[in-house]
Amino acid sequence: MANAKQVEELKLTLLERKELIIKNIQGSRDSIDSLKNSECKDEFDYAEISSDSFKEGIIANQQVKELGEIEDALKRVQDGSYGICDMCDESIAIGRLRAKPFAKFCTPCREIYEVEK
Ligand SMILES: [Zn+2]
User: Spelled out in words, what is the top-level CATH class assigned to the domain 4-83?
Assistant: First the structure.
């Protein structure tokens, strides 16, 4: 079980990660906007630009998803349920939380969850 000090450290990790993602999302939106504003000289250029925007869009979506998970974890820090598995109510190992601070499930439950999915 993560103690108060460890939770505090993990909370800082979450907050740093959150800031980074927000910056990244903002950055990729800016570059998509500048691509849209740039002139397309021929069809080949256009194809390149749209596939880049497409990739950026996917990356941005993943980051939005991660951002949601981080927000969720921060809420759990607030209400004291952070570090407790959502499925079995057992505490999540500190090593797992360090590797993935927004983990919702302990390792065994995560494995079950992934198999069932
Ligand atoms: Zn569990």
Answer: mainly alpha
